[in-house]
Amino acid sequence: MDATIEQTPRGLAMRINVGLRNGLHARPAARLAQEAQRYAADIQLISDTGEVDAKSMLDILSLAPPADTQLTLLAKGTDAREALQGLARFFSDMQD
Question: Is 69 a catalytic residue?
Fold first, then answer.
């Protein structure tokens, strides 16, 4: 996992790649939301088209991120760093 966590005025941020050949569709979006819900931190998923709650499958689907796109994870809270590291692992392990 080579993603870098950066401190921003809004919290901790990390850029990740969506390596799924069909993009972030229903099944992986549901798994991502479920994984994000494991953490107390507020976690946002940011793309070129908007910003959504990473703990909501419907919000994630509304972004409709295509394959091979870059997204930013933004986390704020007591376990923000742990959340970003866990979600980065999740994205690197995720397959179609």
Answer: no
